[in-house]
Design goal:
Serine Threonine Protein Phosphatase 5, Tetratricopeptide repeat, single chain, mainly alpha
Length: 283
Amino acid sequence: MPSVVLFSLLALALVGVALAFVLPTLMRARVRRQEASRAAVNADIYRQEIDELRDEVTRGELAAAEAQQARADLHRRLVDESLPRPAATPAPRIRRAAVLLVAVGLPLVAAVVYFAVGRPDALTAEAEPETAGEGDYVARLQSHLSRQPRDGRGWVLLARAQADRSEFKEAAASFEKALTVSQKIAKDPGVLCEYADALGMTQGGQLAGRPAELVMHALAIDPKHPMALEMAGSAAYADGRYAEAARYWQDLLGQLPAGSAKREDLAAAIARAERKAAVTLPR
Protein backbone atom coordinates (compact mmCIF):
# COMPACT_ATOMS: atom_id res chain seq x y z
CA MET A 1 0.00 0.00 0.00
CA PRO A 2 2.73 2.60 0.74
CA SER A 3 4.21 2.06 -2.73
CA VAL A 4 0.78 2.60 -4.31
CA VAL A 5 0.37 5.82 -2.34
CA LEU A 6 3.85 7.02 -3.34
CA PHE A 7 3.21 6.25 -6.99
CA SER A 8 -0.14 8.08 -6.88
CA LEU A 9 1.46 11.12 -5.26
CA LEU A 10 4.16 11.26 -7.90
CA ALA A 11 1.60 10.91 -10.65
CA LEU A 12 -0.50 13.72 -9.23
CA ALA A 13 2.59 15.88 -8.89
CA LEU A 14 3.31 15.37 -12.60
CA VAL A 15 -0.30 16.28 -13.39
CA GLY A 16 0.12 19.45 -11.35
CA VAL A 17 3.21 20.44 -13.32
CA ALA A 18 1.39 19.78 -16.57
CA LEU A 19 -1.52 21.94 -15.42
CA ALA A 20 0.84 24.82 -14.75
CA PHE A 21 1.66 24.86 -18.46
CA VAL A 22 -1.81 23.99 -19.78
CA LEU A 23 -4.01 26.29 -17.68
CA PRO A 24 -2.82 29.58 -19.25
CA THR A 25 -3.61 28.17 -22.71
CA LEU A 26 -7.05 27.05 -21.55
CA MET A 27 -7.79 30.49 -20.14
CA ARG A 28 -6.80 32.13 -23.42
CA ALA A 29 -9.06 29.69 -25.28
CA ARG A 30 -11.97 30.64 -23.03
CA VAL A 31 -11.43 34.32 -23.79
CA ARG A 32 -11.40 33.51 -27.52
CA ARG A 33 -14.71 31.63 -27.17
CA GLN A 34 -16.26 34.59 -25.41
CA GLU A 35 -15.07 36.92 -28.16
CA ALA A 36 -16.46 34.55 -30.79
CA SER A 37 -19.82 34.46 -28.99
CA ARG A 38 -19.95 38.25 -28.91
CA ALA A 39 -19.08 38.42 -32.61
CA ALA A 40 -21.86 35.94 -33.44
CA VAL A 41 -24.49 38.10 -31.74
CA ASN A 42 -23.21 41.21 -33.48
CA ALA A 43 -23.31 39.44 -36.85
CA ASP A 44 -26.87 38.26 -36.22
CA ILE A 45 -28.01 41.80 -35.43
CA TYR A 46 -26.12 43.12 -38.46
CA ARG A 47 -27.89 40.67 -40.80
CA GLN A 48 -31.27 41.53 -39.29
CA GLU A 49 -30.74 45.25 -39.82
CA ILE A 50 -29.50 44.75 -43.39
CA ASP A 51 -32.66 42.74 -44.16
CA GLU A 52 -34.75 45.53 -42.65
CA LEU A 53 -33.01 48.14 -44.83
CA ARG A 54 -33.62 46.01 -47.92
CA ASP A 55 -37.32 45.68 -47.05
CA GLU A 56 -37.66 49.43 -46.53
CA VAL A 57 -36.12 50.13 -49.94
CA THR A 58 -38.48 47.59 -51.52
CA ARG A 59 -41.50 49.22 -49.86
CA GLY A 60 -40.31 52.65 -50.99
CA GLU A 61 -39.89 53.92 -47.44
CA LEU A 62 -36.17 54.57 -47.81
CA ALA A 63 -34.10 55.94 -50.68
CA ALA A 64 -31.39 53.70 -52.10
CA ALA A 65 -28.69 56.27 -51.31
CA GLU A 66 -29.82 56.51 -47.67
CA ALA A 67 -29.91 52.73 -47.42
CA GLN A 68 -26.36 52.52 -48.76
CA GLN A 69 -25.14 55.04 -46.18
CA ALA A 70 -26.97 53.20 -43.40
CA ARG A 71 -25.47 49.91 -44.57
CA ALA A 72 -21.98 51.44 -44.46
CA ASP A 73 -22.60 52.73 -40.92
CA LEU A 74 -23.78 49.29 -39.82
CA HIS A 75 -20.70 47.67 -41.32
CA ARG A 76 -18.38 50.09 -39.52
CA ARG A 77 -20.15 49.37 -36.24
CA LEU A 78 -19.86 45.62 -36.82
CA VAL A 79 -16.14 45.96 -37.52
CA ASP A 80 -15.63 48.09 -34.40
CA GLU A 81 -17.51 45.57 -32.24
CA SER A 82 -15.53 42.69 -33.73
CA LEU A 83 -12.09 44.16 -33.01
CA PRO A 84 -10.17 42.06 -30.46
CA ARG A 85 -9.87 43.50 -27.00
CA PRO A 86 -6.44 44.61 -25.78
CA ALA A 87 -4.35 41.79 -24.38
CA ALA A 88 -3.99 41.66 -20.66
CA THR A 89 -0.77 42.82 -19.08
CA PRO A 90 1.62 39.87 -18.57
CA ALA A 91 1.60 38.58 -15.04
CA PRO A 92 4.64 39.30 -12.88
CA ARG A 93 7.13 36.51 -12.30
CA ILE A 94 6.11 36.17 -8.67
CA ARG A 95 2.49 35.58 -9.72
CA ARG A 96 3.57 32.89 -12.17
CA ALA A 97 5.56 31.21 -9.42
CA ALA A 98 2.53 31.29 -7.15
CA VAL A 99 0.39 29.70 -9.84
CA LEU A 100 2.99 26.98 -10.32
CA LEU A 101 3.19 26.37 -6.58
CA VAL A 102 -0.59 26.08 -6.28
CA ALA A 103 -0.82 23.85 -9.36
CA VAL A 104 1.72 21.44 -7.89
CA GLY A 105 0.80 21.69 -4.21
CA LEU A 106 -2.96 21.43 -4.60
CA PRO A 107 -2.94 17.96 -6.20
CA LEU A 108 -0.54 16.74 -3.50
CA VAL A 109 -2.77 17.99 -0.69
CA ALA A 110 -5.84 16.58 -2.44
CA ALA A 111 -4.16 13.18 -2.75
CA VAL A 112 -3.33 13.05 0.96
CA VAL A 113 -6.87 14.01 1.93
CA TYR A 114 -8.35 11.56 -0.58
CA PHE A 115 -6.41 8.56 0.72
CA ALA A 116 -7.28 9.57 4.28
CA VAL A 117 -11.04 10.10 3.98
CA GLY A 118 -11.91 9.60 0.31
CA ARG A 119 -14.20 7.10 -1.40
CA PRO A 120 -12.54 5.27 -4.32
CA ASP A 121 -15.94 3.99 -5.52
CA ALA A 122 -16.95 7.57 -6.26
CA LEU A 123 -14.95 7.33 -9.49
CA THR A 124 -17.66 5.07 -10.90
CA ALA A 125 -20.58 7.17 -9.70
CA GLU A 126 -22.94 8.49 -12.34
CA ALA A 127 -22.04 11.98 -13.50
CA GLU A 128 -24.34 14.87 -12.72
CA PRO A 129 -26.16 16.33 -15.71
CA GLU A 130 -24.59 19.45 -17.14
CA THR A 131 -26.13 22.74 -16.33
CA ALA A 132 -26.88 25.32 -19.01
CA GLY A 133 -23.76 26.50 -20.76
CA GLU A 134 -22.59 30.03 -21.26
CA GLY A 135 -23.85 30.05 -24.83
CA ASP A 136 -27.26 31.36 -23.80
CA TYR A 137 -28.56 33.54 -26.63
CA VAL A 138 -30.62 35.83 -24.39
CA ALA A 139 -27.67 36.42 -22.08
CA ARG A 140 -25.43 37.26 -25.03
CA LEU A 141 -27.98 39.73 -26.39
CA GLN A 142 -28.30 41.35 -22.97
CA SER A 143 -24.54 41.65 -22.80
CA HIS A 144 -24.49 43.27 -26.25
CA LEU A 145 -27.24 45.72 -25.30
CA SER A 146 -25.42 46.69 -22.12
CA ARG A 147 -22.72 48.02 -24.46
CA GLN A 148 -25.08 49.28 -27.19
CA PRO A 149 -28.28 50.32 -25.34
CA ARG A 150 -29.58 52.33 -28.32
CA ASP A 151 -29.48 49.37 -30.71
CA GLY A 152 -33.20 49.14 -31.47
CA ARG A 153 -32.92 46.05 -33.64
CA GLY A 154 -30.98 44.33 -30.87
CA TRP A 155 -33.86 45.02 -28.45
CA VAL A 156 -36.28 43.50 -30.98
CA LEU A 157 -34.14 40.35 -31.22
CA LEU A 158 -34.02 40.14 -27.44
CA ALA A 159 -37.81 40.57 -27.20
CA ARG A 160 -38.38 37.80 -29.74
CA ALA A 161 -36.02 35.46 -27.93
CA GLN A 162 -37.76 36.18 -24.62
CA ALA A 163 -41.18 35.58 -26.19
CA ASP A 164 -39.93 32.24 -27.53
CA ARG A 165 -39.12 31.34 -23.91
CA SER A 166 -42.63 32.44 -22.84
CA GLU A 167 -41.12 35.36 -20.90
CA PHE A 168 -43.85 37.69 -22.17
CA LYS A 169 -43.53 40.41 -19.54
CA GLU A 170 -39.80 40.73 -20.26
CA ALA A 171 -40.45 40.57 -24.02
CA ALA A 172 -42.99 43.41 -23.80
CA ALA A 173 -40.48 45.54 -21.89
CA SER A 174 -37.82 44.86 -24.53
CA PHE A 175 -40.24 45.76 -27.36
CA GLU A 176 -41.09 48.99 -25.54
CA LYS A 177 -37.38 49.78 -25.25
CA ALA A 178 -36.93 49.14 -28.99
CA LEU A 179 -39.71 51.60 -29.83
CA THR A 180 -38.22 54.16 -27.45
CA VAL A 181 -34.69 54.14 -28.87
CA SER A 182 -35.58 53.86 -32.59
CA GLN A 183 -38.13 55.95 -34.47
CA LYS A 184 -37.76 53.61 -37.45
CA ILE A 185 -38.77 50.60 -35.37
CA ALA A 186 -41.63 52.58 -33.81
CA LYS A 187 -43.05 52.85 -37.34
CA ASP A 188 -42.64 49.17 -38.17
CA PRO A 189 -46.14 47.59 -38.19
CA GLY A 190 -44.72 44.09 -37.79
CA VAL A 191 -42.85 45.01 -34.60
CA LEU A 192 -45.92 46.85 -33.29
CA CYS A 193 -47.98 43.68 -33.78
CA GLU A 194 -45.36 41.53 -32.08
CA TYR A 195 -45.32 43.97 -29.17
CA ALA A 196 -49.14 43.82 -29.01
CA ASP A 197 -49.02 40.02 -29.01
CA ALA A 198 -46.51 39.93 -26.14
CA LEU A 199 -48.61 42.40 -24.14
CA GLY A 200 -51.72 40.39 -24.88
CA MET A 201 -50.09 37.24 -23.53
CA THR A 202 -49.43 39.06 -20.25
CA GLN A 203 -53.22 39.65 -20.15
CA GLY A 204 -54.12 36.01 -20.62
CA GLY A 205 -54.26 36.26 -24.41
CA GLN A 206 -56.60 39.28 -24.46
CA LEU A 207 -55.88 42.18 -26.84
CA ALA A 208 -58.08 44.76 -25.12
CA GLY A 209 -56.46 48.04 -24.14
CA ARG A 210 -52.88 48.86 -25.05
CA PRO A 211 -52.41 45.80 -27.35
CA ALA A 212 -55.42 46.83 -29.46
CA GLU A 213 -54.08 50.39 -29.65
CA LEU A 214 -50.77 49.09 -30.99
CA VAL A 215 -52.57 46.99 -33.61
CA MET A 216 -54.60 49.98 -34.79
CA HIS A 217 -51.42 52.04 -34.97
CA ALA A 218 -49.90 49.32 -37.15
CA LEU A 219 -52.94 49.42 -39.45
CA ALA A 220 -52.69 53.20 -39.69
CA ILE A 221 -49.14 52.74 -41.00
CA ASP A 222 -50.02 49.83 -43.31
CA PRO A 223 -53.77 49.14 -43.78
CA LYS A 224 -53.01 45.86 -45.55
CA HIS A 225 -50.55 44.44 -43.05
CA PRO A 226 -51.55 40.75 -42.64
CA MET A 227 -50.71 40.32 -38.96
CA ALA A 228 -52.36 43.64 -38.05
CA LEU A 229 -55.56 42.69 -39.94
CA GLU A 230 -55.70 39.30 -38.26
CA MET A 231 -55.16 40.74 -34.78
CA ALA A 232 -57.58 43.64 -35.36
CA GLY A 233 -60.25 41.13 -36.36
CA SER A 234 -59.53 39.01 -33.29
CA ALA A 235 -59.73 42.04 -30.99
CA ALA A 236 -63.04 43.15 -32.55
CA TYR A 237 -64.50 39.65 -32.33
CA ALA A 238 -63.54 39.30 -28.67
CA ASP A 239 -65.21 42.67 -28.01
CA GLY A 240 -68.45 41.56 -29.70
CA ARG A 241 -67.94 43.76 -32.77
CA TYR A 242 -68.56 40.90 -35.19
CA ALA A 243 -69.25 42.88 -38.37
CA GLU A 244 -66.04 44.85 -37.85
CA ALA A 245 -64.10 41.62 -37.28
CA ALA A 246 -65.49 40.19 -40.52
CA ARG A 247 -64.37 43.29 -42.44
CA TYR A 248 -60.80 43.07 -41.16
CA TRP A 249 -60.63 39.37 -41.96
CA GLN A 250 -62.13 39.88 -45.43
CA ASP A 251 -59.27 42.30 -46.20
CA LEU A 252 -56.84 39.61 -45.08
CA LEU A 253 -58.57 36.77 -46.94
CA GLY A 254 -57.60 38.14 -50.36
CA GLN A 255 -53.91 37.98 -49.41
CA LEU A 256 -53.94 34.28 -48.59
CA PRO A 257 -53.20 31.67 -51.28
CA ALA A 258 -56.23 29.87 -52.69
CA GLY A 259 -56.73 26.38 -51.30
CA SER A 260 -54.47 26.93 -48.28
CA ALA A 261 -55.57 25.63 -44.89
CA LYS A 262 -55.19 29.09 -43.35
CA ARG A 263 -57.50 30.61 -46.00
CA GLU A 264 -60.15 27.97 -45.32
CA ASP A 265 -59.92 28.53 -41.56
CA LEU A 266 -60.20 32.29 -42.01
CA ALA A 267 -63.18 31.93 -44.35
CA ALA A 268 -64.92 29.82 -41.70
CA ALA A 269 -64.15 32.47 -39.06
CA ILE A 270 -65.59 35.20 -41.31
CA ALA A 271 -68.76 33.20 -41.83
CA ARG A 272 -69.07 32.69 -38.08
CA ALA A 273 -68.56 36.42 -37.41
CA GLU A 274 -71.15 37.36 -40.04
CA ARG A 275 -73.71 34.98 -38.52
CA LYS A 276 -73.15 36.50 -35.09
CA ALA A 277 -73.34 40.03 -36.54
CA ALA A 278 -76.69 39.20 -38.13
CA VAL A 279 -78.27 38.32 -34.79
CA THR A 280 -76.50 40.94 -32.65
CA LEU A 281 -78.06 44.34 -32.05
CA PRO A 282 -75.86 47.22 -33.23
CA ARG A 283 -74.16 49.14 -30.43
